[in-house]
Automatic annotation (TrEMBL):
Pfam assignment, any one: Alpha-amylase
Source organism, top-level taxon: Bacteria
Keywords carried by this UniProt record: Glycosidase, Hydrolase
CDD domains: AmyAc_SI_OligoGlu_DGase (cd11333)
GO biological process per UniProt: oligosaccharide catabolic process
Domain Glycosyl hydrolase family 13 catalytic residues, every copy: 13-404
Family: Belongs to the glycosyl hydrolase 13 family.
Gene Ontology MF term list: alpha-amylase activity
Protein name: Oligo-1,6-glucosidase
Record SUPFAM superfamilies: (Trans)glycosidases (SSF51445), Glycosyl hydrolase domain (SSF51011)
Gene3D superfamilies found in the cross-reference section: Glycosidases, Golgi alpha-mannosidase II, Oligo-1,6-glucosidase, Domain 2
Length: 550
């Protein structure tokens, strides 16, 4: 297996608009990231992923771009970005940007030209089709709308959008589109960025002929279509292969077999991926399923490609709420989830605030929410005649806004995020959960994450170790081992609110060991000799190291 800098990295995701507001306009900004860079450095991460800050009307929080080479005014300006980039590099970290090239904003000049006339040279930069009997060209639904088609009354044709109508899809069959995107990518890489997170990159190729779907609600027809690998191999050949960068593709709807095709090191496409078999198929922790998913991706990808480990991001509810316990055992379960993600095979991603155990949120009204996906779905469901209160309740747990509330820096007004009025309400629990409190408490979630990141730099078993699940059918226990050369780590996790006594693996019980990390105090004996029986407290996590002589 090839060793690379990015395989050994831990990535910190900065959703800058909720990270820190440096100018009091209520939005976080790039200068805010700069002002808090020492905090990120203290955590010890290697790479920072910045969500999109390109010029945008901001209908989908920057994922609707109207100028790929300008900086959105509320984020700052290009000079500030260059200052931030230099500071990140000076502190020994790298930065990857969000590449959103499946679609643009409907206010992008390219789309305004394309829309202006059927004969405009840029008409074919987007996907236009005639309707059928005054109906959309087919029955597909988009991520954010009941249909992937919106009619332009001027030219009387429909344009295609996988997301909101304000996000028309680019036509990747058009060579000029691809060449323009590759040029834009080079301009950012030449500035010195260290790679890209590629937004829904497996949606670039569309199904030939746009046939009706048997089940339009199952929108996987948007992804993984013939031609996608040709586009990515061309992108790699023309751009990525000329730089020492990392790429992570956001690749919904794949399994290990189809996912490997994007990240196989011999295929010259992408380095790593986010798959969504957990996020899309596990609304709450389903430990047997989670173990199956981990094992299938380890067996399917580990040797020849590279996977990521994450349980939350700007699109997914905070993991301690969704998969842990954000009440009585918040810190214990936040630490357990962190220890799990950093000891499973693959690159760990930390979403801002995860490292202090920030939780999901519950506001009282749909008006307190910002997310276009949630608001569109609410409108769609209420329009069907459903009770608005019921619809609101249904949307709460998985609303993307759960993870977009402002970063909680301290217990002062607006959690120290802004001197102005925050663009989004702060989670009401900010006075008990904030960075200042975490840094003052050596037993906080923060220091568990800092320790995990430090351990990764010293112990190749965390990165390159093989993986074996030792706990099938033994839930709520998740116990697995990682082995690399003469080192074995045994990870024992109690995913429950109850105490749990479990037999240690016979081959390791009684063996001399070292407790590498845990989230409870462990008596001296159980720290140096693996007990026959492990008595785990609620949400207790322990990692033991065994080093054999040979
Ligand atoms: O998200 C894509 C998206 O919504 C799905 O991949 C979803 O995240 C996944 O299936 C798990 O549920 C990306 C961005 O992260 C998101 O913020 C944007 O709204 C969207 O693309 C459109 O650019």
């Amino acid at each position: 297996m090839k060793k690379t800098w990015w395989k050994e990295a831990v990535v910190y995701q900065v959703y800058w608009r909720s990270f820190y507001d440096s100018n009091g306009d209520g939005y976080g900004d790039l200068r805010g990231v700069l002002e808090k860079l020492d905090y990120i450095k203290k955590l010890g991460v290697d790479v920072i992923w910045l969500n999109p800050f390109y010029e945008s009307p901001d209908r989908d929080n920057g994922y609707d771009i109207s100028d790929y080479e300008a900086v959105m005014e509320k984020a700052g300006d290009l000079d500030t970005f260059k200052e931030l980039l230099e500071a990140i590099h000076d502190k020994g970290m790298k930065v990857i940007m969000d590449l959103v090239v499946n679609h643009t904003s409907d206010q992008h000049p390219w789309f305004l030209d394309s829309k202006s006339s059927k004969d405009h040279p840029k008409r074919d930069w987007y996907i236009w089709k005639e309707g059928k009997n005054d109906r959309p060209p087919n029955n597909w639904r988009s991520y954010f709308e009941p249909s992937t088609w919106t009619k332009d009354e001027e030219t009387e044709e429909y344009y295609f959008h996988s997301f909101a109508k304000e996000q028309p899809d680019l036509n990747w069959e058009n060579t000029d589109v691809r060449q323009e995107i590759f040029r834009m990518m080079r301009s950012w890489l030449d500035l010195g960025i260290d790679g890209f997170r590629m937004d829904v990159i497996n949606l670039l190729a569309k199904q030939e002929g746009f046939p009706d779907a048997d089940n339009p609600e199952q929108i996987s027809y948007l992804a993984d279509n013939p031609g996608i690998h040709d586009y990515l191999q061309e992108m790699n050949r023309e751009v990525l292969s000329q730089y020492d960068v990392m790429t992570v593709g956001e690749i919904p709807f794949v399994n290990p077999e189809t996912g490997l095709l994007y990240v196989h090191e011999d295929r010259d496409e992408l380095n790593t991926l986010f798959h969504f078999q957990v996020a899309d198929e596990m609304p709450v922790m389903d430990l047997p399923k989670y173990k199956e998913i981990q094992e299938s991706w380890y067996k399917g990808v580990f040797e020849k490609g590279w996977n990521s480990q994450f349980l939350n991001n700007h699109d997914h509810t905070r993991q301690v709420t969704r998969y842990g316990n954000d009440d009585q055992y918040r810190t214990e379960s936040a630490k357990l989830l962190g220890i799990m993600l950093h000891t499973l095979p693959g690159m760990p991603y930390i979403y801002q605030g995860e490292e202090i155990g920030m939780t999901g949120v519950r506001f009282d009204s749909i008006d307190d929410y910002n997310d276009i996906a949630m608001k569109n779905k609410y409108k769609e469901e209420v329009a069907k005649g459903r009770n608005p209160e019921e619809v609101f309740e249904d949307l709460l747990l998985l609303s993307r806004d759960n993870s977009r509330t402002p970063m909680q820096w301290n217990g002062k007004e607006h959690a120290g995020f802004t001197e102005g009025t925050p663009w989004m309400k702060v989670n009401p629990n900010y006075q008990e959960i904030n960075v200042e409190q975490a840094l003052d408490d050596q037993s906080s979630v923060f220091y568990t994450y800092q320790n995990l990141i430090e351990l990764r730099k010293e112990h190749p078993v965390m990165v390159y170790g093989d993986y074996e699940d030792l706990s099938k059918g033994k839930e709520p226990l998740y116990m697995y081992k990682r082995t690399y050369k003469n080192t074995t780590w045994l990870i024992a996790l109690n995913h429950s609110e109850q105490a749990l006594s479990v037999k240690s693996p016979k081959t390791l019980a009684g063996e001399a060991t070292r407790l590498v990390i845990g989230n409870y105090k462990v008596d001296a004996e159980a720290r140096s000799i693996l007990p026959e029986t492990l008595d785990l407290k609620p949400y207790e996590a322990r990692v033991y190291e065994f080093v054999s002589a040979d």
